[in-house]
# Entry
Amino acid sequence: MRLKVLPPTLRKNNRYLTLDIKIVSPIDKDDVVNIIWDACIRFQGECMTSNFNLWVMRFYECGKNDGYYSYKSIVRCQRDYVEEVRAAISLVNKYDGNKLAVTTIGSSGTIKASKRFI
Amino acid sequence: MFFDLNINGSNLEYNLIMAREASKYGWEHINFAYNQNDFSKALDLKDELESSLSDVISFDYTLEIKSSNIDEIRKNVNRFRNKASCISVVGGEIKVNRACLENVKVDVLSRPYFKRFDAGINQVLAREAVRNNVAIELCFKDILKSYLSHRSKILSNFRDIYALYRKFDFPLILSSRAQSIFDIRTTHDFVAFFKQTGLTDAEIEKSFNTSYKILEFNNNRENMLFTGVRRVDDEA
# Structure
């Protein structure tokens, strides 16, 4: 049996970050999940990361250009911790021995609105 | 105003790629940094870069002097003073840090904590930085490319520098020192990271203003007769 949905006043407030990902080898959505969780746990620690309420909502492949693969992703995080998540994610530079760059190109309150950054 | 005074310069094609990426991520001005050996060659690329980047982003050159010999640093500073819009010296050694901060012709002491176990500056050097208006530069790439204990130690050095900065108010600038497009981040990410390390919004904004003031000051440097006296073209 499923739990009853919380009323809006008791729900957590979320923000949706649009990420721009560049990497020299192809990745999939599960890799993005690993990258984001590892980045946050490494930079902010386990206790702090537990507040972030991270979830990868969408993942888009944007093709290959100039020797790297380009992806976009929409990641959910808790509203009060946007700066912490942004800082942690921006500090990733390698995944599986491959050069990687992740940067946040937009932040919005709904998934629909965050799609305008893609 | 988002200024990055230290993006590693390379050949023309890669400079264009870096500049376009920086512009896409919200930077308004970048300086390509070259060392003393490559700087003269880099000046030849300037016209072509200017024509290609005129409607993309404004740019200029930084001379980044990397040497542990104080006389060599002094000679290079005097040699390139009128050609570079910004002269920075890579610090790390105490004698280099001190020599730079005592030289009014140097604009920036880059990474005083480089390869050290402490911040590389103390109250004495901080006072010299204020007196000679030499900015101290913290690089995002040092954190980006390090991990675990090494990263923690650099962050600790940053905090020591922030403490001195709050007491003595020397010029502080933040830069990316990006070598490739994988090292460039959006301006908002850049600010978010430095906020996490302990700087406030106002301090970060002030650091970007400091970068702007360095470039503006050096544009007028030939009109500076001596400290506090400037030649003006106002006929009235």
